[in-house]
Design a protein that fits this description.
Layout (H helix, E strand, L loop, with lengths): L1 H10 L10 E8 L6 E8 L7 E4 L3 E3 L7 H7 L7 E5 L2 E9 L4 H4 L3 E5 L4 E8 L3 E8 L9 H9 L5 H4 L6 E11 L2 E3 L12 E3 L14 H17 L9 H25 L5 E5 L5
Parallel strand pairs: 4-12
Antiparallel strand pairs: 1-2, 2-3, 5-11, 5-13, 6-9, 6-10, 7-8, 8-9
Helix pairs in contact: 6-7
Length: 280
């Protein structure tokens, strides 16, 4: 609902347009590849189509599915080491139509137990619904089969008084699974060279274990940092404006990254490492 609300507001901004149903397949650059001048994209499913859209500044906000590292390597750039937390986190979510009045009686319920590496959340959401989430770490993924999901929920160890809020609630569809094998923090600001006209925000730069609620906050403060940098006198940071922005963003998201990382490392089987990209 939050994303829907933000999208509606952005669409009302004069000069903003959306290209829906398209996928970005690469970067447009100047002949010497020192500046990104736009993107290459195509209609989803049209494998032979390629359209160029030019821009003064390209911002990659494509999340964990970002292909930016591969595109930079294809352009001949040498990537810096990245940090990885390999936690193999998995979630399964099922929605229920709430019994009238139950959301007024109860707020939300969250239980997370690190030694057993599992978690559960029951949260009221819009349209009089409950969102029930089962979570696991170190590859202990919750079920996406409806019957198994209900069995895991019943044997999760939460009190019968809490489970009672779902009595009479109508399941709305099957459980949906979400798997996050690794959380990654890129260090593009440490690269020997970085192309002008290119920035990266959000999970495309640093992805978090979602259970700690850091991802949207980190993306928001990164956007605020970009706004602050754009308002600075450009003579102070040019010609390396983009690297300056990336360094500033890393400063503001670093505390969130380490809070999340240290919390994950309390659990069994979770590993942290710095990973050097292969030279291509």
């Amino acid at each position: 609902m939050l994303e829907w609300g933000i999208r509606q507001r952005v669409q009302k901004i004069p000069g903003v347009s959306f290209l829906s149903g398209r996928e970005v397949i690469g970067l447009e650059t100047t002949p010497d590849r020192t500046r990104v001048s736009g993107i290459k994209h195509r209609q989803r499913g049209q494998l032979h189509e390629q359209i160029a859209s030019m821009a003064d500044l390209v911002v990659d906000a494509s999340g964990q599915s970002s292909k930016l590292a591969d595109w930079l390597q294809d352009l001949g750039y040498k990537l810096a080491e990245k940090e990885e937390v390999r936690s193999s986190v998995g979630y399964s979510t099922r929605y229920y139509k709430a019994v009238p009045g139950s959301q007024e009686e109860w707020g939300g319920f969250v239980r997370y137990c690190v030694p057993q590496q599992w978690g559960i959340a029951i949260e009221p959401i819009e349209n009089n619904m409950w969102a029930v989430i089962l979570a696991g770490m170190d590859g202990m993924y919750p079920a996406v089969d409806a019957k198994e999901f209900e069995e895991q929920l019943a044997t999760s160890g939460i009190s019968p008084q809490v489970l009672a809020v779902l009595h009479g609630a109508e399941p709305l569809g099957e459980p949906r699974g979400y798997r996050i094998p690794v959380c990654i923090r890129q260090h593009y600001e440490q690269m020997e060279q970085w192309p002008a006209g290119l920035l990266v925000l959000g999970d495309a730069l640093c992805s978090f274990d979602p259970i700690y609620g850091q991802g949207m906050d980190a993306a928001a403060v990164a956007a605020e940092t970009l706004e602050e940098c754009l308002q600075e006198p450009q003579t102070q940071v040019r010609p390396a404006f983009e690297r300056h922005v990336l360094q500033r963003i890393q400063e503001v998201i670093q505390p969130a990254w380490w809070i999340s990382t240290i919390a994950d490392l309390r659990a069994r089987g979770i590993t942290y490492c710095r990973f050097r990209w292969p030279v291509v």
